[in-house]
Each structure stands twice: as C-alpha cells, then as structure tokens.
Design a protein that fits this description.
Number of strands: 11
Helix content: 25-40%
Number of helices: 10
Largest sheet: 5 strands, mixed
C-alpha cells in the first residue's frame, strides 16, 4: 500500500476575527516583525473601523490577550485575533486573492532562442540568493519575475515602458519586452518551483530581504537578493517587478486560510501527456480549477503555435 508521507505544518502563526474565522497566517522562521506583518495585512484586510489592532488569543478559553502593536519586534508563533484598537469586536472582510501562477514557459517569440536565459546567466553567473556558482550552470536556472504568459496584464500595468534594457526587441520577447533581463533572476534550480509558486519573495523596500511564506524554506528566509554586481541600471531587475511578485506571495499564502487545495503544477499533472477528462466536477468545478484550465491550455497549445508560425 502506498502511503502519502506526512506534510509539514502549514502555519505557526494564525490570526482570527471575532467569529473565529481565519483571516491571515504564515510560517514564522523568526525574522518577520510586527511592523512588516501589519503592512502586509493592510494589502488584503478590510475592517469596518479605521483603526484596528492584533491581540494575542488564548485558543482554549477564547480570550483576548495583550495587544501586539506595530513595531520592530518579531511576531511570535501562536494565535491572534483582530479587534478595534479599543478592544471591541469588528467586522472584517478580505480582498479576494487573485493568484497569478507561473507556468513553465518558452520564449515569448515562437521558434526563437531563449535569449533571456543566456543574458541572465551572463549577467549573474551565480544564484542571486545563495551565491552558488557552478561551472556548467547545471544547478542554476534563470527564472522570470513576472510570468511571461501573463503578457496582457504586463502591458496593462505599463511595464513595457519601465524597461530600460537597451537590447534588441528580438532579445526581449518582442515589443512587450517581457523577456528582458530586467525581468529575470538566476537562482538555484531547486528554488525555482518555490519561486514560481510565490512561496518566497523579495521585498525591495526592506533592503531586498527574502521572506518565505511557507514552511520548508528555512535555508533562504532572511537572505538578501545579491544585486551589487549589477552596476548598469538598464540591466538591473526592476523593483516594481520584485514588489509585484512579493505581493502575490502575500496574497496567495498569507490571505485567509492561505493554502489552496491544489497547486497549478498538480492541475498540470491532471492534464497528463495526452487526453484529459473535464467531466469530473470535483476536480474542475471550482473557480480555481477553471482558472488553472484557462492558464494551462495555452501552454499545451504552444507546440501548435510554433508549428503554425514556422509554416
């Protein structure tokens, strides 16, 4: 009998509203401070009072403890509750997360060479998180910051106008410039999947510190993105893109219960190598599943687009 190995505990910090509903949480490695946590909460918590505070919570007796105001002290693992600053119950709403997962991608121009990979390797030469260097790049991977398959949103946010990379458009994914070296970073290959699933991110406003949102990433939490070797600003990863990626991690992993039932990789596995069955409502009936279908299908049609382009 195949037994599924036990999963790591997802969170050791959770925040509830006065009705006992989980409104936020994360895995604390010992680095995230209260002032940072309040800033992150402010991106998705909507309260009916202008001022609110997090209090300690005794889950056994359901009693509110001492307040935990913003400050430069570390959030301790445990349970907390959100009240008005006066200590009164307050109605809390959450901005619905709109995940924007990556997919394994090809260059944005069908049939073209992966210029972003070569340019990223030439610029960095090592993992920008850990400093790992290898002679053959066998343990390194160049990853996009903003996913190239979401080019419509990329254009809507005005990112093409922010790219100052002077390379030819053909080397940057065409007119969108989404394959610019300013939208990629080099990292250890084993970090790639966690990066594209937004399990950790880089906060430019906090000296480019790495914050891991999920358990199992202790080896990178608290590190700093290494950018000092990039003196040319037209080659440097854009702060706006790193911030965008970071906020995605907050939205997906801190907001509400945080953990989705399936990752986009698991939905991709459901597709298999050939045909797939969409009649199973338990698998495909949720909004998340439908969004995953819409996201994965264009990727599966990539070979057809390439073939058509070459014809």
């Amino acid at each position: 009998m195949d037994l599924e190995p036990p999963r790591l505990q997802a969170r050791n910090v959770e925040v509830f509203d006065h009705k006992g509903v989980v409104i936020a949480g994360f895995w604390q490695y010992g680095t995230l401070q209260w002032d940072e946590f309040y800033r992150y909460l402010g991106t998705f918590v909507v309260a009916t009072t202008a001022t609110w505070t997090i209090f300690q919570l005794d889950p056994t007796n359901q009693r509110r403890g001492v307040p935990c105001p913003p400050g430069a002290h570390v959030v301790q693992p445990g349970y907390y509750i959100l009240f008005s600053s006066a200590g009164e119950p307050v109605r809390v709403g959450l901005v619905p997360p709109v995940p924007r997962p990556h997919n394994p991608t090809h260059s944005s121009i069908p049939g073209s060479e992966p210029h972003y990979r070569n340019r990223g390797r030439a610029r960095d030469g090592r993992c920008l998180f850990t400093g790992l260097q290898t002679e053959t790049y066998s343990r390194l991977k160049v990853a996009h910051i903003f996913p190239p398959e979401q080019d419509a949103e990329w254009i809507c946010k005005g990112y093409p106008s922010k790219i100052t990379d002077m390379a030819d458009e053909a080397q940057m994914g065409g007119q969108t410039k989404i394959d610019s070296v300013q939208n990629v970073i080099t990292m250890r290959s084993d970090l790639h999947d966690a990066w594209v699933n937004y399990e950790f991110g880089v906060d430019p406003s906090n000296n480019y510190r790495v914050t891991a949102f999920t358990n199992g990433n202790a080896d990178i939490d608290g590190l700093y993105l290494q950018l000092d070797h990039i003196q040319d600003p037209t080659l440097r990863p854009l702060d706006e893109l790193l911030t965008d990626h970071f906020i995605q991690g907050v939205s997906i992993h801190m907001n509400g219960a945080g953990e989705s039932e399936r990752t986009h990789d698991e939905y991709d596995d459901i597709f298999g190598e050939g045909s797939f069955n969409l009649s199973n409502f338990a698998t495909w009936g949720s909004r998340e599943a439908k969004e995953s279908f819409e996201r994965i299908l264009p990727e599966r049609l990539f070979d057809l687009r390439v073939w058509t382009h070459q014809e």
